[in-house]
Write a structure and sequence with these properties.
Blueprint lengths: L1 H5 L4 E6 L14 E6 L6 H11 L8 H5 L24 H5 L9
Antiparallel strand pairs: 1-2
Protein backbone atom coordinates (compact mmCIF):
# COMPACT_ATOMS: atom_id res chain seq x y z
CA UNK A 1 0.00 0.00 0.00
CA UNK A 2 2.90 2.36 0.65
CA UNK A 3 4.11 2.10 -2.94
CA UNK A 4 0.58 2.50 -4.32
CA UNK A 5 -0.20 5.60 -2.26
CA UNK A 6 3.24 7.07 -2.99
CA UNK A 7 2.49 6.78 -6.72
CA UNK A 8 -0.42 9.20 -6.25
CA UNK A 9 0.51 11.57 -3.42
CA UNK A 10 3.63 13.77 -3.29
CA UNK A 11 4.36 12.82 0.32
CA UNK A 12 3.49 9.76 2.35
CA UNK A 13 4.15 9.67 6.07
CA UNK A 14 3.91 6.31 7.85
CA UNK A 15 3.04 6.07 11.52
CA UNK A 16 3.65 2.52 12.83
CA UNK A 17 1.62 2.47 16.03
CA UNK A 18 3.74 1.88 19.15
CA UNK A 19 6.93 1.48 17.14
CA UNK A 20 10.06 1.03 19.24
CA UNK A 21 13.14 0.83 17.00
CA UNK A 22 15.68 -1.85 17.88
CA UNK A 23 13.31 -3.46 20.38
CA UNK A 24 10.45 -5.04 18.48
CA UNK A 25 11.15 -4.59 14.78
CA UNK A 26 9.43 -7.89 13.86
CA UNK A 27 6.21 -7.18 15.77
CA UNK A 28 3.05 -6.96 13.68
CA UNK A 29 1.31 -3.65 14.16
CA UNK A 30 -1.09 -1.20 12.62
CA UNK A 31 0.51 1.34 10.32
CA UNK A 32 -1.35 4.57 9.64
CA UNK A 33 -0.45 6.31 6.38
CA UNK A 34 -0.91 10.05 6.06
CA UNK A 35 -0.77 11.36 2.50
CA UNK A 36 0.02 15.05 2.05
CA UNK A 37 1.41 17.54 -0.42
CA UNK A 38 4.23 18.58 1.95
CA UNK A 39 7.47 16.63 1.58
CA UNK A 40 10.29 15.94 4.03
CA UNK A 41 8.57 16.91 7.26
CA UNK A 42 10.81 16.11 10.21
CA UNK A 43 9.74 13.98 13.16
CA UNK A 44 10.14 17.00 15.43
CA UNK A 45 7.90 19.14 13.21
CA UNK A 46 5.19 16.46 13.19
CA UNK A 47 5.28 16.23 16.99
CA UNK A 48 5.27 20.03 17.42
CA UNK A 49 2.23 20.37 15.14
CA UNK A 50 0.43 17.57 16.96
CA UNK A 51 0.99 19.31 20.30
CA UNK A 52 -0.29 22.58 18.80
CA UNK A 53 -3.65 21.11 17.84
CA UNK A 54 -3.97 18.48 20.59
CA UNK A 55 -6.50 20.57 22.52
CA UNK A 56 -8.86 20.60 19.53
CA UNK A 57 -8.54 16.91 18.69
CA UNK A 58 -10.83 14.42 20.39
CA UNK A 59 -8.80 11.39 19.45
CA UNK A 60 -7.40 9.50 22.47
CA UNK A 61 -3.59 9.49 22.65
CA UNK A 62 -3.32 11.74 19.57
CA UNK A 63 0.12 13.09 20.52
CA UNK A 64 1.37 9.56 21.29
CA UNK A 65 0.39 8.44 17.80
CA UNK A 66 2.07 11.50 16.29
CA UNK A 67 5.25 10.52 18.12
CA UNK A 68 5.20 7.22 16.21
CA UNK A 69 6.11 9.05 12.98
CA UNK A 70 8.58 6.98 10.95
CA UNK A 71 10.88 9.19 8.88
CA UNK A 72 13.08 6.51 7.32
CA UNK A 73 12.49 5.40 3.71
CA UNK A 74 10.18 2.41 3.31
CA UNK A 75 11.64 -0.29 1.03
CA UNK A 76 9.14 -0.89 -1.77
CA UNK A 77 11.33 -1.90 -4.71
CA UNK A 78 10.20 -5.53 -4.61
CA UNK A 79 6.43 -4.91 -4.54
CA UNK A 80 4.00 -3.86 -7.29
CA UNK A 81 1.77 -0.81 -7.39
CA UNK A 82 -1.72 -2.07 -6.63
CA UNK A 83 -4.50 -1.37 -9.14
CA UNK A 84 -8.15 -2.20 -9.52
CA UNK A 85 -7.59 -3.73 -12.96
CA UNK A 86 -8.41 -7.20 -11.64
CA UNK A 87 -10.58 -8.38 -8.81
CA UNK A 88 -10.69 -12.10 -7.97
CA UNK A 89 -14.46 -11.89 -7.68
CA UNK A 90 -14.54 -11.25 -11.44
CA UNK A 91 -13.79 -14.94 -11.98
CA UNK A 92 -17.20 -15.82 -10.51
CA UNK A 93 -19.13 -13.89 -13.15
CA UNK A 94 -18.80 -16.61 -15.78
CA UNK A 95 -19.59 -19.40 -13.32
CA UNK A 96 -23.03 -17.99 -12.62
CA UNK A 97 -23.65 -16.94 -16.23
CA UNK A 98 -24.29 -13.41 -15.11
CA UNK A 99 -24.55 -10.65 -17.64
CA UNK A 100 -25.25 -7.02 -16.96
CA UNK A 101 -28.87 -5.95 -17.41
CA UNK A 102 -29.66 -4.35 -20.76
CA UNK A 103 -30.62 -0.72 -20.72
CA UNK A 104 -33.86 0.22 -22.43
Amino acid sequence: MCKTHAAVFPALDPFPVAFQPYEDVETLRTIMLVATAERDVSRGAVLARAKQVAGRVRFPRFVNYAADYYSEPVAVDDVPVLTDDYAPVDTLVSIYHWTPPKRP
